[in-house]
Structure to design on (163 residues):
């Protein structure tokens, strides 16, 4: 089994990222969906696995890529922050772009509201925000994604209760 931690919108406030790493063990990869605000070196220094970053709308003067594409087992993954696809107004635009790119999984942030669904053969994952959650209850959130040896995946939105 391969475990991926999906986070977003930490906005330079990294204490909840640290708490998440204490809560989640045996992580193989972390994907940060943007708005890291120039703290990617700090996050990488406390993680015990690789981190893939994309830039968000608040990552001014960043050298981080706008989006990434990579393979995760048999799945093609596309990662972007989401602001350019107006995800705060809905996920139809990002879904259409993901399909056009031939992605099986799209990971994005920006809205600060978690989402984990499969629709029309596409997995859409928005981990919400670890620093400024906007969903009901306003608990910091992230997603764990598991890739199993037989190729299937499972996933879960998780919330930090104490922070």
């Amino acid at each position: 089994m391969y475990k991926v931690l999906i986070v977003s919108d930490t906005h330079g406030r990294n204490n909840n990222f640290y708490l998440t790493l204490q809560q989640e063990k045996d992580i193989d990869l972390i994907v940060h969906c943007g708005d890291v605000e120039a703290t990617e070196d700090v996050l990488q220094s406390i993680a015990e696995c690789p981190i893939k970053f994309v830039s968000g709308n608040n990552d001014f003067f960043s050298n981080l890529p706008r989006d990434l594409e990579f393979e995760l087992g048999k799945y093609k993954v596309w990662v972007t922050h989401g602001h350019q696809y107006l995800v705060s107004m809905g996920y139809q635009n990002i879904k259409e772009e993901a399909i056009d790119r031939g992605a099986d999984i799209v990971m994005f942030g920006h809205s600060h509201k978690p989402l984990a669904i499969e629709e029309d053969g596409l997995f859409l994952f928005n981990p919400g925000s670890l620093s400024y959650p906007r969903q009901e209850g306003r608990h910091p959130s992230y997603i764990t994604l598991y890739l199993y040896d037989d190729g299937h995946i499972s996933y879960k939105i998780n919330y930090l209760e104490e922070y």
